[in-house]
Amino acid sequence: MHIDLETTVAALNAGDHVHAHGADSRGVDTSRAGYLLAAPRPEVGQRSSGRAEGWLVYVGKRGDAPALSNRLMLYPDTGRIAHTPEQDLSLWRATTLRETGASSRTTNLRIRFGGPATRSAVEPTQDTTVCVTYNTEGWYSLDATDAKCTQVFECRLGTKIWWAPLPDAPVGLFADVL
Question: Mean pLDDT in the chain?
Answer without folding.
Answer: 88
